[in-house]
## 1
Amino acid sequence: MVNVQTNSAISVDCVIFGFDGVNLKALLVRRRASDPLYDDNELKLPGAMIRENETLPEAASRVSEGATGLKDLYLKQTSIFSDPSRVDEAELKWICRYHGINTDRVVTVGYYALVKLDQGLLRHTLRMGGLWVNVDEIHGLIMDHMDILSDALTVLQKDILWSPIAFQMLPKKFTVRQLQNLLEAVFGIEIDNRNFRKKLFSSGILLETDEMEKHVSHKPARLYMLNKSAFGKKELTKKLHFVASWL
Amino acid sequence: MVNVQTNSAISVDCVIFGFDGVNLKALLVRRRASDPLYDDNELKLPGAMIRENETLPEAASRVSEGATGLKDLYLKQTSIFSDPSRVDEAELKWICRYHGINTDRVVTVGYYALVKLDQGLLRHTLRMGGLWVNVDEIHGLIMDHMDILSDALTVLQKDILWSPIAFQMLPKKFTVRQLQNLLEAVFGIEIDNRNFRKKLFSSGILLETDEMEKHVSHKPARLYMLNKSAFGKKELTKKLHFVASWL
DNA sequence: ACAAAAGTGTTCCTCTTACACCCATGA
DNA sequence: TCATGGGTGTAAGAGGAACACTTTTGT
């Protein structure tokens, strides 16, 4: 009988994506040292150990709610990071001491959450010591948190093509340009504004409001809302007929 | 300090997909009872507990190699199944006894593997007591293995659109019809043969061989091979310009 | 000869792409 | 009045969709 690993701790780490109208950002927190060995300035993703009788989605909700103060965030599991050496001995000691636990191994599960980056949220995260950093400017996170982050971005890019989750990062009423900027930021591409509008309006997923932007020093843009009812699977099947982007 | 769960066991379960030229199949194994309480006929996905100092991909390789006798399979992680009640008390006892371990909780990680279903493999899996079952006819697996299976199929459908992994399930030399049947089986759709050929050939991903099918009682089809060099990211970026299928 | 699947072209039409100017507002 | 981003249309071309008959082999 070989040695089966049973004394594992499982954690979740959340990549919380937000959009400020121009850039895609992620929420980072400082490692709370409580330990002279560690630099209080090191940045990490918000995370936690799972508790007894808690599912992973529950743990991820707890973490993202703790970091943002918001309930019912859109949350999606990405990958598991299980390399036995992802946590070195010193880190393991710190984790055990910090959590008051004793374990041989820590496996972590990545999640991403999508939030609307409004003033209230900014204030909350600031109070909590969180930092919203442009995704393409993040570097030097602890352990394998950079891997977890880039994995989350890759998964987000794929997901966003298949469901209207992009709107989770926009205010309830938004301009066409905001949506365009968001997609450009997520994919790192440029989109032709005229063609984008044409496609967008003909798809019927936007509901026009009679409100306009205020206090902008240029022609104010109209605000739109998401038309949730404009989704159907018939279209998906049609799309699938042209099966496979590698063809 | 809350109770942090540390005494977890982590397992992997592999959905091994194969294609027989017509149907998409998955490899199932019988639960090895060694226990009068359990019916030896219950079917499950091949799986195992992770060992000390083993990563999850390593464990998944070990499981899929054990089940198929093949090395270097294409393997992809899908989701984690972490519901504390996914394993009921009786199951937990069985697992502990069967593996000679003691644990409070078993969390499992889903993987899928893609294989070429040839005669050698069929013989091997038959000897091992494995069963290749059409994916749409599978039901009644133990625990949450049905969930793991359908999750794997969903992930496969998305993945297959973004990379040429479909060819992992075809022989080195294959007919156009085989590829078409495979895609039809994976997505559950019908594809127009003439248009499919046009698109396929113009994409340049097939290399023509001078071999033909043998011993078929109709006009023999030409065999083709995959042209690995026909992939580039320039095309992907172009596709992304029409961002989002929900538009 | 017959059954069974392979292989092949054309037309219609939709959707993508590329592109430049006037408009409304705050400063 | 100026700077800034909002908002609009068209033409050319590519690509998708629909569709029926002949060919080759084994039995």
Note: The CA atoms of residues 141 and 173 of chain B lie 34 Å apart.
## 2
Amino acid sequence: MDEKKKHKHDENTLVCPDCGSTNISQDPETSELICNDCGLVISEEAIDYGPEWRAFDADQRAKRARTGGPLSVMKPNRGLTTEIDTSNKDSRGGKISVKHQTTINRMRKWHRRISMTSSYERNLATALQELEKITDRLQLPKRVAEEAAHIYKKAVEKQLIRGRLIESVVAAVVYAVCRKNNIPKTLDDIVQISDNDKKDIGRAYRFIKRELNLKVPFTSPSIYIPRYASALQLSEDVQERAKEIVEMAMEKGMLSGRGPTGIAAAALYIAALEKGERRTQKQVAEIAGVTEVTIRNRYRELKELLGLEDLE
DNA sequence: AAGACGAAAGTGGTTGA
DNA sequence: TCAACAACTTTCGTCTT
């Protein structure tokens, strides 16, 4: 169990370092170069206005900040806020009279009430921090983070967060955005880098999806093929063949209920056999995060469904 | 010795009363 | 809220390479 977890984590952090070779596309909006194999952002045209350090809680943030906060659409008020400080001095450092202090206190109260301290803002602040952590660890492109932020805001406005951990909801939203954009990340991938329960995240995902009417398309197994293939160092040939197999299986309606990762894994296993680049079931199973048994079952189903000849 | 195969029992999540 | 259910996993024995 421990070993398996470790392995999965490696898979996430070290995905195809050389995938710059072929499968790259450019995002029309942000002009980011994105690897289709794993969603890795190869290079970004946009300048990052954020700080070079990272902080996970308010304390760290306060210690590390040297100037004002970074400008970002990912922050409430774009990171620009003003605050009336509590030292009761005027701009030249002189004391403010007691008479004026009450006025200023009142101003301070309202100012804070209006700008920063509403629960909405506070909620969003933690959420965006968490969102940054997750998208960073999964190496997801910026537009995914932005779409997720947008959806999350809607969820807060509709009061859907009540009774749920902010972190779980953020993870759920990220998962939903990945699904929507056909980015090959499983719920397990998200759980690996999040500190929360799979149960919580899954429940939050279903809830958010239903309440916000998110239209999440059926996940085609083929989106996992490039990712698994490069992790297994299989050729383009094998990938193409595996995609063909998936296509054929889908036409015959094999998609009912079965997990897409298992189908992708089995198709890849078959394709690799056909092209003489044999991988063991165990190898494929580990990469795909399913068991050998599942691969065997899908393998058997695919074989009889497609009438594939026995291969040796 | 390692891989492939499949039966049987167990697990976590969904669905419908 | 509970029970039935499907998909998947775990475990294990057997056969093949």
Note: Strands of chain A lie at 24-26, 33-35, 41-43.
